[in-house]
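Pilot study result, target chain (380 residues):
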Amino acid sequence: MLRHALVVGIAGWLFAQEPVPTPPAPAQAPATTPAPRAQAEQFVRDLAEPGKQKAAVAGLVALGDAAVPALHQALLDRRSDVLQWALFACSGLHGDCSSLRTPVESLLASKDLGVALMARRAWPAVEGRHGILLTMNAGQVEMVTATEEKVLHKLPDPFHTELLPNGNLLTISNTRKVLRELDPAAKELWSVEGHDAIDCKRLPDGNSLLSNYSSRRVVELDPSGKVAWSVETAASPLEADRLANGNTLITLYDKGGVGGVIEVDRAGKTVWSFAGSQLTSAERLLDGTTLVTSVKADRIQLVGTDGKELRAWTFTDPMRAHLLPNGHLVVNAHAAVVVLDAEGKTLWQLERKLITGMQVLGAGPLRANAAAASQEPRKK
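Predicted structure:
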C-alpha cells in the first residue's frame, strides 16, 4: 500500500514538472489596405504637412476618380498652401473629374496669386484636356494626346503658343514682332506689335508676360497693350514666369557663356539666382526648388533654394522640362518630346522638326499609370 502510494506520488510529481504546452497564438488578420476614400482623405490631410505634400499629391493622382470627393473638400480650404497643392494634384488627374470643374474655375479668379496660377495649371485636367501643345518652326500648332495628333492651325511664324482657359490661343511671332490672341477658329481677337518675344504667358489678371529676346527685356502688358511692368536683363531672356510671391523667374541665355536663372522682384532687384551656361528654361516648383535645363551640358537639374543641385537627369539638347504631379518629366528638345519616369527611363517619345514652343496640358500625353508599351497608336 505504501509502495503504491509512493509510485503514484512520484508519477504525479514528474507530471507536474513537465512544461505545459503553450496554446498557439491566434492567427492575426492580414493588414488591410485602407479603402480608397480613406486613403484620399489622409492624403488631403497630408497636403498641409511639409515634407509629405509631394507624396500626398502622387497618392491622390494614383487614386484617380476615387480622390475626387476628398479633393472637393481640399478646394474649400482657405489655406493658400493647401489649395495650391490640391490644385497641383487636380492637374494630374485622369478619369472623370469633371465635377471639380466648377471649384477649379472659381479659383482662376482668386485674389491669391499662387492659387490663381495653380488653378490655370489644373483647368485642362478637369476639362479632360490632357496632352501637349507644340509650336513648330514651320508654322504648325499641333495638339498631341494619348490617342491623337492633330494640327490645330498653321500660323505665320509662330514661336510659342499657349492655350487659354477660355479656349483661345495666345501666340507670339518673333520675326513679325506681334503678340496675338486667336479664337478657336484662328480669328484674331486682339494683337500688340513691337515685341521681339520668343515666350508669352497670360497672367491671371489678364496681363501678358513677354520675353523680348533681342532687346533683352521682360515686359508685362495690360489688355490695352501698354507696358505695366518691365525689367532689363543682362542676357537674352528665353522664358519668364510669374511666381506666387509676385516675383518673376527669368531664364537668361547667352552664347558667350554668360547666362543663368534669376528671380526678380517688382522693383527689378535680383533676389535669387542660379548661374549656368546656355540654360534654356526654369520651372519653380511648389516646394521652392527649381527645375533647370541646360542645352550645353545636356542636363536637367533640380536645385534647392541655396542653388545646390539636389538631383540631375542626362538628356541631349533639353530646351524645356516640365514636372508632372506623378513625378514624370516632359522634356522637349529641338526635334523631339519625351516623357521620362522619375528614374529617367523613357516612357514615351514623339519626333518633330524644330520645336520652338511647348505647353503641357493636364497630365501630358500619357494615360494614367501607363507604360510606353501599352499605349495605343495615336491618330494622325
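One observation from the pilot: The longest strand covers residues 236-242. A full batch analysis is planned for the follow-on phase.
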